[in-house]
TrEMBL record:
CDD domains: Glyco_tranf_GTA_type. Pfam families: Glycos_transf_2. It comes from the Archaea. This is Glycosyltransferase family 2 protein. It comes from Methanoculleus nereidis. Transmembrane segments: none annotated.
Length: 310
């Protein structure tokens, strides 16, 4: 069999109400030379929905271990295309998404990740564009990001899992997603790639990120000891693997993840963990956010959650 141009990996876990929409957006692409690998760990009707779609390009795999990172890695291991695109089961693509990613791949073969802009779907009628870093040139620009780490601090994340594609050789080189983390495992992988390779971005071929969908992992209110990329960056800095021109922006990006995790720990009722995250946080650019979050971490958990209406 001829190898597909792109392998699309979709982890599926109890997203029965959304998986048909995600797959329909894949089949509606202007670029049609792809395979779709659905890694399924569902206990709802999602499995039956996929089986009911009559398209030979779909491969339905049963998840062999738990967790979205393990599912994505399983899909990567089964991928036959040289380029692997990711889509969460509750998100979707606009019709020229794969076309835009492949154009980036052709123009910037040296890049480690290819990503498109995206819209945030907040309800049935509202799409909101994120506020990207002002350092990213305005639409219709496409090219290599000036500095991924700075761009991710100065605005909304330029990369989300559902709008990126990565060469399979790079995924294999870096070991894929960290299966030991349930939060930030995608940001960790993009960061590890960005330490070694440029990141390509286009305003064209947008994805749609459904913030209103239920059962999203990012909405879990559970304690987090450390963001996955904080450990990756620490190891890379100690090993001298961070290019000098990226050192300052990597430090600030690490600080932004520490503050983010501290805020999530406050939401999870663990101000002790939040204070621990912030004690290790060193920043020049984000010091206001750090000290404001540290102030909130002094409030008893019950009072904080009551003020937040939790």
């Amino acid at each position: 069999m001829a190898l597909p141009g792109v392998s699309v990996v979709i982890p599926l876990y109890n997203k029965g109400p959304y998986i048909a929409r995600a797959l329909d957006s894949v089949f509606a692409q202007t670029f049609q030379d792809f395979e779709v690998i659905v890694v399924d760990g569902s206990t709802d009707n999602g499995t039956e929905v996929v089986r009911g779609l009559d398209d030979p390009r779909i491969r339905l795999l049963r998840e062999v271990s738990r967790g979205v990172s393990a599912a994505r890695n399983q899909g990567i291991a089964e991928a036959r295309g040289e380029l692997v695109a990711f889509l969460d089961a509750d998100d979707e693509w606009t019709p020229r998404h794969l076309e835009a990613l492949l154009r980036l791949r052709e123009k910037y073969p040296q890049a480690g990740v290819y990503g498109t802009a995206y819209l945030l779907k907040e309800n049935e009628s509202t799409n909101r564009a994120p506020s990207y870093s002002p350092a990213i040139p305005p639409e219709p620009w496409e090219g290599l990001l000036p500095n991924y780490f700075s761009d991710a601090i100065l605005g909304s994340p330029p990369l989300l899992t559902s709008i990126v594609a990565v060469p399979r050789c790079i995924l294999n080189e870096l070991g894929g997603f960290d299966t030991g983390a349930w939060y930030g495992e995608d940001v960790d992988l993009w960061g590890r790639i960005a330490l070694k390779y440029p990141i390509a971005f286009t305003w064209a071929g947008m994805g749609i990120y459904h913030t209103e969908a239920s059962n999203r992992a990012c909405n879990r209110k559970e304690p987090i000891r450390e963001h996955a990329f904080v450990a990756s960056a620490r190891n890379a800095l100690q090993a001298g693997e961070v290019p000098p021109e990226l050192t300052e922006s990597v430090h600030e990006f690490v600080a932004s993840r520490q503050i983010q995790v501290a805020c999530r720990n406050l939401e999870a009722g663990r101000p002790d963990l939040a204070r621990r995250n912030l004690r290790r946080c060193k920043t020049r650019r984000l010091w206001r956010s750090k000290w404001w979050t540290l102030l909130l971490a002094q409030i008893p958990s019950g009072v904080y959650l009551a003020l937040r209406g939790r």
